[in-house]
Structures are given as structure tokens and as C-alpha cells.
Write a structure and sequence with these properties.
- The structure is a single chain.
- It contains 23 helices and 16 strands.
- The chain has helices spanning 2-31, 37-46, 65-92, 94-99, 115-128, 135-141, 166-172, 184-189, 205-222, 239-246, 267-284, 303-312, 333-343, 366-376, 404-411, 428-442, 459-469, 481-487, 491-513, 526-545, 569-586, 613-624, 626-632; strands at residues 108-111, 154-158, 175-178, 197-200, 230-236, 260-266, 295-299, 325-330, 393-396, 418-423, 449-453, 476-480, 548-552, 590-591, 601-602, 635-639.
- By secondary structure, it is of the alpha/beta class.
- Helices cover 47% and strands 12% of the residues.
- It is elongated and about 115 Å long.
- The protein folds into four domains: 2-92, Helix Hairpins (Orthogonal Bundle), CATH 1.10.287; 95-132 and 146-266, Rossmann fold; 288-487, NAD(P)-binding Rossmann-like Domain (Rossmann fold, 3-Layer(aba) Sandwich), CATH 3.40.50; 494-639, Orthogonal Bundle (Globin-like).
Length: 644
């Protein structure tokens, strides 16, 4: 459509110029017949470059109508050409020119328009749209499109001018700047010193850190002190990079400045959290009254698989009061097992003296295992041989070539059936093939099988179509992990953020009543905010496990009573305590007889049965308030429909 319109405009302009040129030749031939044809052509061309008439002062005869017409047509054609050229130049740099306006501020900047950056931009654009109602909406409808408000401005910095997503985000209302997001010039062009937030999603951890450092240097010099600090979200891809930069000077909470507020985002962790929120109810709620804990199979023990395991590590089964039974299947199971326990030594069961590994790697891992046991020791008084967290079974095998032998090894104890499968292999086609194989081996179309796709593709649409035609696709779903991670910053993440603030305010009121100092939410350190978010996530996950659904509603109906039976509260409190322990262990804390924040020692890092009743009540109090907090936050809660 746009190409056709441009072609028509070009043809009309060339026709106008040609008519003016021909009329000019004819007019000059009649006006100055003594000149040759070449002179007439040259004078006709000059009509497009000079608004004066060369021979009027030498001749007394009137100018012919044909020549006068040629003069005006040439003038119009020249004016159109100048206007079109200016428009093209302005369009090429309109976003840069617009950002120079003095009233442009508090915008959002997305660095990088890869798969992650594109998803984040679209989520932010959908969230930033304003929808005025009533007479305001009717009045704005009559304004030109460029004058209508489009909500908060989203600015995208992308290095590749041929990026296929550029046209889409421009059409959706984003401002685009072509250039290197790690460059000081490009970030200043995006007015980063006046922005409210920036998401750095360059796909390379080194470039992400380079861009974050550049942002910090710019805002330190150019941002006004009275403005809130720039919230810089550095999206990391590798857990090692996150662990290193978390203690780096750039992201240290103690070094947080008045102009720069950096945050490290683990997209794999966000994806795992969203997956569990979506499927915890389907997998765990039906087995709540079973005498054995539900078994969850995770195929692929990479970053996503390990994060899924970490999020399930504290969950206790209400029926058996035991931890979940999780099986990880990987073609390099021994290597992944050693890698997992080396990365998370606190997950190592006390009954194990060393990290499981292949016989060849046992000697090499001895030193690491000794340190892991020392760091992972939960506390004196824990029951010997009883793990504090989920102890997964690592099974060696290729899930895409699943046969009866591998399936029997995955099943293990036949009395403990499989309740859900996550496929995190990294290749969507292989994952779909494995999903069909598992569906036939499981012989139960009620078991959810979740395919974790690394990027957006047409496979999800194909799956929806095939699901209607082929019963083998029933309860097989595919999710774009990139989109899931980005949705944490959209409406899905608002529930967690709202609950986290409500939880903190409740604790703050209690502290103030007891004359203890308590900071408001905006003044909290980042690690305490993150702790409240994790607690809120755990409450919502428990809600799903117990078969409840929640949704944002303008006027949520007020429900009386409580979600959970009184006998379930100790179990849920134990789960919350284990989650809190995992959070502390991940941040380098250890058990100590007395609390020492400088040495990161805490006496409560031990099993909840070893704690006094007052301490255990602190874990159950937010659980008892879940219903009230959700309803106060604007969410309607209802029992999920029964499973068909």
C-alpha cells in the first residue's frame, strides 16, 4: 500500500516536471526565435533553478502564456522537490529530532532489538498505551494521528538498520535510533540522562555490562539530582556472569548512587517462574491428596532446567508431607549433575559425602564436594539423611529417542506416577518430537507436557492447529521463553510486584507498632525488595498448587474465610521457610549461632522444626493474609474449575 502510493507520487511529480520542461522549450522558441534549440533547452532547465526570468529586462514584448505557464509549473515542481527532500531527511532523523525537544523525559529506553529486545519493546508498548474514555476519547478521535497521545514513550536503540523488527516497533509507536547501544553518543542521543528506565538486552553479557557502565557515566554527569535515579535493567544470559557482576562495584547496593539504580535480571529465572505459575496448578493440585508426592520430569538440565528445579526445590507435597520427586533427563547427565551441585552446593543432601559424578571425574570433584558439604550443611539438628530441598534424579539419555528402557528408568518407582513434563532441550523441533514420543509412552493424555521454545516461531501456531485434528497433541503446549521472561515486566509481573509491596507494608506496620525502625518500600535496598518479590511469588505459587486462580478485576468480590485448612498452615510455613533459606544460601549466607550481617551468618538457617513457635509463626503469617492482601490489591480469587 505504501509502496504503491510512493510510486504514484513519483509519477505525478515527474509528469509535472516534464510538462514544465516541454512548455519551457516551446515558450522560449516563440519568445526568442533567434536562439538555437540548445539554448532553449538550457533556458528551460534553468527555470527549475532560478525564480527570475533572464530575458525580461532586454525585451519589451510581453511574455507568452506558454512560457509563463512553464515558469509557474517549474516553480511548483522545484518547491515539491525541496519539500520532499526535507521530509525524507526529517523522517530519517525524526526520532532524534523529537528526542531533542525539552519536554521529552521519563521515557523508556530498550537497548537492542533482538528476540529479547523485540518482545520487551512490545510488552512495554502494550503496557504504556493510554485509553481515555468518555468525552476525552471522543475529542481525541478528531485530532490528527500525530497529535494523539500514545502513552509513555519507548525509545529503541538498534545497531542493525536491516533488522526485521524495526518496521513493526515503529508502527506500534516506538522511537527508533540506529546505532551502537554501548556508544556514549547513541545513549546521549536517546536522552538516557532524562529517561526513567532502560532495559539493556544486547544478547552478550560483555556488551550489556559495557552499556550499563556507559549509562552510569552519562547520568552521573548530566542527570539532575532532584530527578529519581535511572533504573537500569541489565539482562544477563549466563548465571556465571550474573554471579560475578552481582558483587561488582557497578551493581553493589552499597555503591548505589542518587542518579543510577542498576538491577541484574536473569531471564532464565524469570521464564522458569512464569512456567511454574502457569502449570503448577495443573501438575500439582490434582495430586494434592495422593499418598505419594507428584513426580515432575524435566528433560534438559541446562539453564532453564536447573532454574525450574531451583524454583521447585522447597515445595512440599500436602499429602505425603515430602518434597517433590523430580527427574532430570539429559544426554550429559553426569556432567550436568556435577555442574548443578557445584553451582548450588546447599542443594547437596546431607546424606551424600560427595557430589555425584562419573567415576573418572570423582577425584577432580573431591575438593569441590568437600567445600560444598561444608557450605551446604543446613544446621545442627537436621535429621540425618533427610534433605532440606528437592534431591533430583539425574537420568542419562536422549529424550528425543525415548524407548521403553529409558522410559522405565525415568519412571523408576511405578507406584509414583508422572504428573507433568517440561521439555527444555533447546531445539523446538526436537522438543515437539519428544513430546509426541512421551505422550505415547505415558499413555495418558491428561498429563501436561510443556515445550519450552527458546524463541518465537511458527511452531506454536502449528501446534494449536494440530491440536484440534490430532488427539495426540492434547495437553501439549509450547511457550516462548523469551516472551515469558519479558511478560514479568507487564501485567503478569504486576501481581507479584503488588503483592510484594502489600507484604512489605504489612511487616512495616508491625515493626512500627513495636517501635522498630522500618523503611518504606521506595527506600528499601534492592536485595530486600527482591526478597519480598520472591515471597509474593511463593504465595501465588502455593495458590496455584491448591487449585485457586486469580485475576485483576476493577471491583473484586470480597470473599470471607481462608484458602487453606488450618492443618495445612504448618506445611505451608515450612515451605516458605525453605524458600527463604534457598534465597539466603544463594546470597552467600551460612548458619551461625548468632546473627552477623557482615559475615553473613544467621541462626535461623536450619530446619523449621528446630525453631521456636514464635519464629515459625512469622512464616505462616503472610500465608494467612494471602486472601486479604490479594483482594486489597485488586485481584479476584476463585477456585479453579475441576479437572475434566
Amino acid at each position: 500500500m505504501k509502496t504503491t502510493q510512493t510510486l504514484r507520487e513519483t509519477i505525478a511529480f515527474l509528469s509535472l516536471a516534464l510538462v514544465a520542461f516541454i512548455l519551457g522549450i516551446c515558450g522560449y522558441a516563440h519568445y526568442r526565435p533567434e536562439l538555437g534549440c540548445t539554448d532553449h533547452i538550457i533556458d528551460s532547465v534553468k527555470l527549475f533553478f532560478s525564480f527570475s526570468f533572464n530575458y525580461a529586462k532586454d525585451l519589451t514584448t510581453p511574455i507568452p502564456l506558454v512560457l509563463n505557464t512553464a515558469r509557474w509549473l517549474a516553480l511548483i515542481a522545484t518547491f515539491i522537490a525541496i519539500l520532499k527532500t526535507y521530509t525524507l531527511i526529517a523522517q530519517a532523523h525524526k526520532d532524534r529530532l523529537w528526542l531533542m525537544l525539552p519536554w521529552v523525559k521519563n521515557h523508556l529506553v530498550v537497548c537492542g532489538l533482538g528476540e529479547h529486545g523485540y518482545c520487551m519493546t512490545m510488552v512495554l508498548l502494550n503496557q504504556a498505551k493510554t485509553r481515555p474514555r468518555g468525552w476525552a476519547a471522543r475529542a481525541l478521535h478528531y485530532l490528527p494521528a500525530f497529535l494523539r497521545p500514545k502513552g509513555k514513550t519507548i525509545v529503541v536503540i538498534e545497531a542493525d538498520p536491516n533488522n526485521p523488527h524495526l518496521a513493526t516497533v515503529r508502527a506500534a509507536g516506538a522511537r527508533v535510533i540506529i546505532g551502537d547501544a554501548t556508544s556514549n553518543i547513541m545513549l546521549r542521543t536517546a536522552q538516557i540522562q532524562k529517561a526513567a528506565k532502560t532495559h539493556i538486552m544486547l544478547g552478550n553479557d560483555n556488551k550489556v555490562i559495557a552499556a550499563a557502565i556507559t549509562c552510569r557515566n552519562i547520568v552521573a554527569k548530566s542527570r539532575k539530582k532532584q530527578r529519581p535515579p535511572l533504573e537500569c535493567y541489565a539482562h544477563m544470559q549466563r548465571p556465571h556472569g550474573k554471579k560475578f557482576f552481582k558483587v561488582h562495584d557497578l551493581f553493589s547496593s552499597s555503591k548505589k548512587s542518587e542518579t543510577f539504580d542498576p538491577k541484574i535480571i536473569d531471564d532464565n529465572l524469570l521464564s522458569a517462574q512464569q512456567l511454574l505459575l502457569a502449570y503448577a496448578g495443573k501438575m500439582l493440585a490434582p495430586a494434592r491428596t495422593s499418598p505419594t508426592p507428584p513426580r515432575i520430569v524435566v528433560a534438559g538440565a541446562g539453564c532453564i532446567g536447573q532454574n525450574l528445579l531451583l524454583q521447585m526445590a522447597h515445595i512440599l507435597h500436602p499429602g505425603s508431607k515430602k518434597l517433590l520427586d523430580v527427574t532430570l533427563v539429559d544426554i550429559q547427565a553426569a556432567k550436568r549433575e556435577k555442574e548443578f551441585y557445584t553451582r548450588y552446593p546447599f542443594m547437596l543432601p546431607p546424606s551424600k559425602n560427595k557430589t555425584p559424578a562419573t567415576d573418572a571425574a570423582t577425584d577432580d570433584a573431591a575438593a569441590t564436594d568437600a567445600n560444598a558439604d561444608a557450605d551446604a550443611a543446613p544446621a545442627p539438628g537436621s535429621k540425618p539423611g533427610e534433605p532440606l530441598f528437592v534431591t533430583p534424579r539425574f537420568v542419562h539419555g536422549d529424550i528425543t529417542l525415548c524407548d521403553d528402557a529409558l522410559m522405565n528408568e525415568i519412571r523408576g518407582d511405578a507406584a509414583n506416577p508422572i504428573h507433568g513434563v517440561f521439555l527444555c532441550i533447546g531445539n523446538e523441533t526436537d522438543e515437539l518430537a519428544a513430546a509426541l514420543l512421551l505422550r505415547r509412552h505415558l499413555n495418558d493424555d491428561q498429563i501436561p507436557i510443556v515445550v519450552c521454545a527458546d524463541s518465537a516461531s511458527g511452531l506454536s501456531d502449528l501446534l494449536k492447529v494440530e491440536a484440534v485434528k490430532d488427539p495426540d497433541w492434547k495437553n501439549i503446549s509450547i511457550h516462548n521463553l523469551t516472551k515469558l521472561a519479558c511478560e514479568q515486566f507487564g501485567p503478569n509481573g504486576e501481581a507479584i510486584e503488588t503483592m510484594a509491596k502489600a507484604l512489605h507494608e504489612e511487616w512495616r506496620e508491625l515493626d512500627l507498632k513495636q517501635n522498630r525502625p522500618a523503611l518504606p518500600w521506595d527506600d528499601l535496598p534492592d536485595h530486600e525488595k527482591e526478597s519480598s518479590r520472591n515471597q509474593a511469588y511463593n504465595l501465588l505459587l502455593n495458590l496455584k498448587n491448591y487449585g485457586y486462580e486469580y485475576r485483576l478485576a476493577p471491583n473484586p468480590p470480597l470473599l470471607a474465610g481462608q484458602f487453606y485448612a488450618p492443618e495445612d498452615l504448618p506445611l505451608l510455613g515450612d515451605m516458605e521457610h525453605r524458600r527463604w533459606m534457598i534465597e539466603k544460601f544463594l546470597n552467600g549466607w551460612k548458619y551461625g549461632e548468632t546473627k552477623d550481617p557482615d559475615k553473613k551468618l544467621n541462626p535461623y538457617l536450619q530446619p523449621s522444626e528446630n525453631l521456636d513457635s514464635d519464629t515459625r509463626k512469622k512464616d505462616t503469617k503472610p500465608i494467612e493474609s494471602t486472601l486479604r492482601l490479594l483482594q486489597a490489591s485488586g485481584y479476584a480469587v476463585q477456585k479453579a474449575p475441576p479437572k475434566q
